Amino acid sequence: MRRRISFIAAILLCVTAVLAGCGTKDADSVVKDLDKVVNNMESYHGTGTMILHTGQQPLEYHVDVSYQKPSYYRIELTNAKKDITQIVLRNDEGVFVLTPRLNKVFRFQSDWPSNQGQVYLYQTLISSILLDNSRQFTVDKDAYVFDVMANYQNGSLARQKIWLNKSNYTPSKVQVSDTNAAVMVEVKFDKFEFGSKLDKSVFDTKHNMDSSTSNQPTMAEPGDGTENPADNQTTSDPKAGNAGTPDSGANNAPQPDNDANAKPDDAAGSSPNADDGSAGGSTSASGEDADNTQAPADGNKQAESPTFTAMEPSYLPEGVSEKDQQEIVFGGNPGLMIRYTGEYDYTLIQTQPHDVAASKMKGDMVDLGFTLGQISGDEQLTLTWTYNGIEYRLTSGTLPDTEMIKVAQSVQGEISK
Q1: Least confident piece of the model among 20-24, 242-246, 303-307
Q2: CA–CA gap between residue 183 and residue 180 (Å, rounded)
Q3: Burial tier of 146 (Cβ tally within 10 Å: 0-12, 13-18, 19+)
Q4: Contact 88, 104 (CB under 8 A)
Q5: How much is the pTM?
Q6: Engineered SS bond to 217: which of 23, 105, 123, 256, CB 3.0-4.6 Å?
Q7: Over the stretch 335-367, which tens digit does the pLDDT of each residue have?
């Protein structure tokens, strides 16, 4: 009798397992479906929260992402605590980084995002699944979970887990980890839908600026579309030169432009030197002429910028300490230079430029999570980015690019007095 009961119980367990498995696919089937979804995808819209665990304190951003075939993108990143919103656009005119509250627009000529991954973009996530033949696959309640290699510019990001809803393959969560399996970036989607009806104005630069400010943006136009330039800031003073322009040639240290009042001592070959103020135009660090034509806002009025507040990185590479701080005038704008020394030597310069102009230079776009930056140079690298109207330049001849990104991502806290 007991044997009969055990036999019946075993049958029931098998039936239960089969029923539980109904509707659940294996990894190969899901991968085939994902390939079809991406190829047939016309548009999508999603919202969620991104948390960066790159400093001493996690940084949280609200993410709003839209895509329209063939290559239109809009990503809005908002730090609610600091009331800072930046928008990344890709349209027929190029790639733009907008700060509507400050009436600032920066333009890049780039293949972004096809030439680099973004954790909040569906194409990036699915591509990492399709390309990793050693992918790991599990089923978690209502989601298929893939554990695959991370394919991001930051080389310290090694792997990522991607949760996809069983019903429609929309993403619900992403966790990107470093080589020690510590989660560095986390994205949780609260909404994601395919086939969203997106008006063309969603990807229009002027529309995005006008929706947040009554003034027209100060536009930055590239000097040469054949290069891979990023637009940077300068002052309206014609002597101010190319403020904030990353060095485009190898072995060039960053240089504050004409009329820079401070001449800091050299540190690790990366400290700035004042330029000759006699030149009427401006020249990039590589010696190429820069296109500094400037388009003023309506009525020649610029959006009022908040008082300059210096920030400092919360992350320091092992064996590195702060050397000193010096107030400087960089391109006619007040700023601060912080120098670090030890295992690596590097310099962080931050200023608050007022106007935007084009700069002709070479460099590659870098995803910092909360905004896009540009990295240039060879033996000596300069990483330039803007956030909340402040321009940052991190320069070093010894700091690896992966460490540069970590330092840049941690520049969020005000300097302690």
Answers
A1: 242-246
A2: 9
A3: buried
A4: no
A5: 0.69
A6: 105
A7: 999 999 999 999 999 998 765 543 434 567 788
